[in-house]
Write a structure and sequence with these properties.
alpha+beta, 6-stranded antiparallel barrel, 19% helix
Length: 118
């Protein structure tokens, strides 16, 4: 399946970003980077492996805006296999499970603004 076909199956449009994120998990606090986001979920890279279906709270740190605290669930995991090198950051697709209407509207507007001019 091509990425274009996969995109058509998504419920929400998605854009590439580089936003720092802090995740509050049962194992403790960890930092990562959101690489793409929609109103319904995100792709996050971090140094710690979570498991599929793990629930956690994430704080999205976007410039000029208060942190957004959003409940999320790990939907899939991407562990890069790079022989003879330093461990690469782990990627994971997450679905937002608890997001305020204000935060969801912010994400809808950011994605809409970006897709309008791309």
């Amino acid at each position: 399946m091509s990425s274009g076909q996969f995109e058509k199956q998504r419920e929400h449009p998605r854009i590439d970003v580089t936003w720092p994120v802090t995740m509050m998990t049962p194992e403790g606090e960890m930092d990562g980077t959101i690489e793409n986001i929609s109103a319904g979920g995100a792709y996050i890279r971090c140094g710690t492996l979570l498991s599929k279906n793990d629930l956690f709270i994430l704080a999205i740190l976007v410039q000029d805006r208060e942190s957004s605290w959003i409940g999320a669930e790990v939907v899939w995991i991407d562990i890069p296999l790079i022989p003879n090198s330093e461990p690469a950051p782990i990627g994971m697709g997450v679905r937002f499970t608890d997001i305020s209407e204000e935060d969801r509207q912010f994400l809808v507007e950011v994605v809409s603004e970006h897709t309008r001019y791309s």
